[in-house]
Every structure is written in structure tokens, then in C-alpha cells.
Write a structure and sequence with these properties.
The protein is mainly beta. The protein is 8% helix and 39% strand. It contains two helices and seven strands, in the order E-E-H-E-E-E-E-H-E. Strands 5-4-6-3-2-1-7 form a seven-stranded mixed sheet. The radius of gyration is 14 Å and the shape is globular.
Amino acid sequence: MTAPAGSSYRVRRARIHFLRKGATFDAEIAQTREELVRGLRDRRAPSPMLFLFPYSSPWSMTMSGVRVSLDMLFLDDAGTVVDLIEEAPPQKLQIVPAKACRYVLELPGGWANGMGLALGDRAMILPLVG
């Protein structure tokens, strides 16, 4: 996700809206190689993070260095949830989705269930600039 044409900054946050569920929240964006590797590592109270990958693939995720459980939603190019891992335990070394994805949305553990999110739900991702 890039900033509007002519701007010299990178988008750092996005608003995520799940169309049928009415769930809306903001997420930090991980986009650079360093951000994708670091993710939510070493954070005591993680907030939502959206991982933007350059193309669709079954991107594996790791919980190494993560202190709390997380929900992981794997989204395809259209923003549809193609896999969902709830309450992934801290320190789990590798999590691989069942299908290729372009985005991974990490949420604090229990959020997906609390919002009623499920496979097939579609998210709209809106960049927040400014």
C-alpha cells in the first residue's frame, strides 16, 4: 500500500472494515522487509497489524518472540479470509496458511471470535494518510 501520487511518505496505518460483520478498526502496517520480519515481536500489548506482501503465496508466519496469543487472518488479493488461526500460542515457530494469501491480519487473541469473523468474510482495507 503506497501513499497517494506525489506524496513523499509511506502509509503507516490502515482502516480495516469487514463488510458483512460491521467490524471496523485501525491497524499498523508492516510492509518493509524489516517490518515483516519483526511484526509484533516483543510487544506486551499488541494492537492489530496488517502484513502487506508483494504477491500472493502461502506466506508462513512465526510467533517467535511474541509474548501473547494472536488471531491470524490470511486474506487473498480481494481481502477475503482464506484461512483463520485463532489464539496462536506465543513462541510457535511456524504457522502456514492452507491457501495462498496476499495479506495477513494479526489481532490480539480472541478478537476474531469476539467480532464473529470467519472464513469467507471480506475485508475492505483503506489507507490512512496524514
